[in-house]
Amino acid sequence: MSTDHLSLRVLVALCLCLFASATAAADGPVRPFKDALFSSQAVLKTEDEGAFKVLDYQELRDINQRDEEPERRVKRDYVDLGVREFQANETLTIASSRLDVARVGRMRDATFTIIFIHGRGGDRRLGVNDYTFGGNFNRLKNLVVQSGGAYYAPSVKSFDPNGAADIAALIRHVFELSSGRPVILACASMGNFICQSVTRDKEAVRYLKGLVVMGGPSDPGFLTTPAAKLKIPVYFSHGSADSVYKAEEQIALYRKMRKAGYPTIFRLFQTGGHGTPIRMSDWREILNFMLAAG
Question: Which of 160, 236, 237, 254 has the smallest CB count inside 10 Å?
Fold first, then answer.
């Protein structure tokens, strides 16, 4: 091979690398991980310059064809189990209370931290299960670890002010461990009662960068909360056929927030049920939206 040909190949390779880097940077700080499997839902409808999207969801495809055992075990292509090396169960003593958590990623100096709050009947195991919910928690864990972040899945003792106080203390704890870097709180289903309590805690919201509401009850008074006064970004995801918490009520809150100029995103899964957001929400989009906002 001539020197000219070699130089040309090197130049082309360099250009491709620069293009790939620029594309990833444009998408946000969290790099792709299995995006072809998790980030490729067809968009059926778009409003508000992309802030509101209706996404295609089909149970036969997104559960039956994705799982080896429907709702129990996803196919192996959807997971990378090497991330288990960075996972540990811990019992933290914070604010005079003991809290069981599963932690994935860095204990200190994380680039960001995300905390997932389960719904009724769950515990810390739900948020780190690699195979359920279509492998979506395994993807979250890998996204966090490859970005130098931290992920916590606590066992919530109760969905009342006492349970919320534990999570408020955890938010401050991880904020301090990461030297003030972003902390994101994600709440699913009934766990959103914890999120609602935290948004009303003037101290806790000082340490919060973003809020994720996945198939949760609507909070009509949100815009009056300390969290809203700080304009903490909110990402909603919901199934259109959710029979537990109606999508229409959550959409109404989103519309009210948009009218007020609030930083928010809504993803509605067409025909999706109550558990669909946990399975189908795009964690990379969520993290990049939160880290880029404000």
Answer: 160
